[in-house]
Specification:
Oligomer: homodimer
Strand order of the largest sheet of chain A: 6-5-4-3-2-1-18
Low-confidence stretches of chain A: none
CATH topology of the largest domain in chain A: Metallo-beta-lactamase, Chain A
Largest sheet of chain A: 7 strands, mixed
Strand content of chain A: 25-35%
Shape of chain A: globular
């Protein structure tokens, strides 16, 4: 299954140094999930050749403007382009009223339905399809804020093509084999499932954590994720400012990655005060605790491996 | 006086082909007026090195999203940057409630005051200072929509430096000369004002017209403007679509420029369906009626001469 992440915005609230407010697109199989939608998200999609129309699910972590001010513009464009497909928005409840009053004031009747899924304040599965599961979990910010865990579903057994040919297993038996059943051939001989199948690779996962105070409990919600995007709004020397504003430092984000036994850490949500060279210092601070850290870059696609 | 216009967005509602929703900055002397504020306006300001902090007056033509969805983000950034100076917003009344509910939901208390100036539905002077006068005038769109005329104030006489030296006029007399008074020298000789001063150049003006159905009456509100920005959302062959959506075509915008005896016409607010080569065709259509037409370009500064 395709499983990759494209960063559209890696900055915190004030757009600066060419960086944009929070937004990213996660592809899982045929679905494209939009995670947060800061101002300019639709232009960033254009810029990086991501088709707006592919998105059917939007997840908004919290109701600070840099995480959703781009949503109303995106909805407006969808409607002008005569979208018909229902759009699912996972968000805190007050967002609906904000959207409604804006549409009403502009005299806009959308050409499509929005199905709102209001987020709980605790860990919970909020979306599932055949291939995918999305879970939210609480963060600690100035207002209600959630992280999201996107997990591949891996069920059953992987069929070994060469063994299928060798034992002449008919196509009709494939589902039974995937479910772990043995195969009985025309002579009544039982072929053990383990001879015909292998373990599937472990389920991959991606976690999005923005914005939050340093919160070690997060690690328990995202065990061994393949890729973690964690906010690192501040460098270590600005730890007090991080605490005051309910944000994390480079070292704190790396500590979460370490505690969760993450494979790779992508840091972002950078303060507007940091130029590109400051981000290199921030990276070094994170790497002292968690070596597999990288600085998120807008427009870059990260494979979840 | 400095008098120039920088285009930040020249597209209609759906951002496309690298073009942005409506926004422009007009410099008149020391004041920077922001006219409309589509999504991404603050990023465009960064991109084109226009300091956000210079802006104290914002004019919103109407409440369709592509003309104001960038405003809430700009206000948010001002507050995060701890702006203290009052910001004046000229807009239709419902915008205040939209801004208020968004700030409230985000838990944002602005660090500065907003002074709202609600727009009338007829021609009226809405702003004046020593050097400048701003007048609004009605357009015809799907919702209440106004154009804006920005006019230099030219009062009094221009002092001729060489004549001042020749007749030894003391500095204290300058204001009187500007007001057209004669000068009486130490010997009691009267020096005629006309010998010491000349006519000032005529007052320059700039008019912003977006969005509107073709409306010949507009010309009477903007006589002989030096620069007219008029929407030309559609090419002539899409005239029916223009009429249906209350927009103008290339020829229609050029006709307004011609009727108003405009010096120069800048067309913009282009439909998302047009690529750059289509805009060249649109330009040719306008020039058939009004030769002094140019295609507005984002990031370009136009002097009002």
């Amino acid at each position: 299954m395709e499983f990759n992440l494209t960063i559209l915005g890696n900055n915190s609230a004030i757009p600066s140094h060419g960086r944009h407010p929070a937004a990213q697109v996660l592809q899982m199989g045929n679905e494209y999930f939009l995670i947060d939608c800061g101002e300019g998200t639709q232009m960033q999609m254009n810029h990086f050749d991501i088709k707006r129309s592919r998105i059917n699910y939007i997840f908004i972590s919290h109701l600070h403007g840099d995480h959703f001010f781009g949503l109303i513009g995106l909805l407006n464009s969808y409607s002008l382009l005569r979208r018909e497909k229902t759009l699912h928005i996972f968000c805190h409840q007050p967002l609906k009223a904000l959207i409604d009053i804006q549409l009403q004031t502009c005299g806009t009747v959308l050409t499509f339905e929005i199905e709102y899924h209001f987020l709980p304040d605790k860990q919970q599965i909020i979306f599932e399809n055949k291939q995918t599961m999305v879970q939210c979990f609480p963060l600690q910010h100035r207002i209600a804020c959630l992280g999201f865990l996107f997990k591949e579903k891996v069920e059953g057994r992987k069929i070994l093509k060469d063994k299928i040919e060798k034992y002449k297993v008919p196509i009709a038996q494939m589902e039974a084999l995937k479910n772990g059943e043995d195969f009985v051939d025309a002579n009544g001989t039982v072929i053990d499932n383990a001879l015909l199948t292998a373990d599937l690779p472990p389920a991959r996962s991606y976690a999005y954590v923005s914005d939050t105070l340093f919160l070690p409990e997060i690690a328990a919600h995202i065990p061994q994720v393949n890729l973690l995007y964690h906010e690192a709004t501040f460098k270590n020397e600005d730890a007090q400012r991080a605490a005051d504003t309910f944000h994390s430092t480079a070292s704190q984000s790396a500590t979460i990655a370490h505690l969760a036994k993450t494979k790779k850490l992508l840091v972002g949500h950078f303060s507007a005060k940091y130029h590109q060279e400051h981000l290199q210092e921030l990276l070094q601070q994170a790497r002292e605790i968690f070596t597999e850290t990288i600085i998120s870059e807008e427009g870059k696609k990260y494979e979840i491996e």
